[in-house]
Amino acid sequence: MISAQPKVILPLSQQKPLKRLVAEAFRCKHRLAPFLGAGVRSAVFCEDTVLPGDIVVPGCKVSYRLDWLDATPYRLLVYPEDFREEANQISLLSPIGVALLGVHAGDGMPVFVPEQGFHTLHVVGVERPTVGADKQIAPALPVVTVRL
Fold first, then answer.
1. Is the CATH number 3.40.50.300 carried by domain 9-145?
2. What confidence tens digit (pLDDT) does each residue in 83-140 have?
3. Nearest 5 degrees, angle CA 41-CA 42-CA 46?
4. Which of 54, 61, 80, 119 keeps 20 to 30 A from 107, CA to CA?
């Protein structure tokens, strides 16, 4: 049985940085480059000001759960060059980061985690960034949490 993938929606301000990241990942032969590239190619890009508040974008904090496990604490989704600490951040070039990019709170997305296999990642909640931070969308939007 084939499951439908959730629609990926991303802010227009992230289109160029994400395409650069995909190109660099392919250049370095990163194992996740094809998956990140497919997500970015299939994404719908919209103006930052009309982006729904429950979309996972670079610079937002997100809580998720794998399968039916407990939800994680909120962690910041960051570009690889900004990744410093696993306890508080998720790199866009990680299996979880690729699966989270552009999906809504409440969506489920298949993800392959090395040494663990396939899981379904469920987005529990999204906290959007504040105005003016580098590589983040401009409008500050409310926290959105979905009960599953």
1. no
2. 999 999 999 999 999 999 999 999 999 999 888 999 999 999 999 866 544 444 434 3
3. 95
4. 80
Q: Do the beta carbons of residue 67 and residue 81 sit within 8 Å?
A: no
Q: Per-domain residue ranges for the chain?
A: 9-145
Phi, psi (degrees; rounded to nearest 5) at 63: -115, 140
Residue with tokens 């289109």: 15
User: Which long-range contacts (C-beta less than 8 Å, at least 24 apart) are formed by 14-23?
Assistant: 14/45, 14/57, 14/58, 14/135, 14/137, 15/45, 17/58, 17/79, 17/135, 18/58, 21/79, 21/80, 21/92, 21/93
CA 104 to chain centre: 9
Cβ atoms of residues 101 and 121 within 8 Å: no
- Give the span between the Cα atoms of 60 and 64, in whole angstroms: 13
Please give the structure tokens belonging to residue 41.
Answer: 């190619």
Residue 115 buriedness (CB in 10 A; 0-12 / 13-18 / 19+): exposed
| Type of residue at 80 | P
Q: What is the pTM of this model?
A: 0.83
73-86: average pLDDT: 96
pLDDT of residue 23: 97
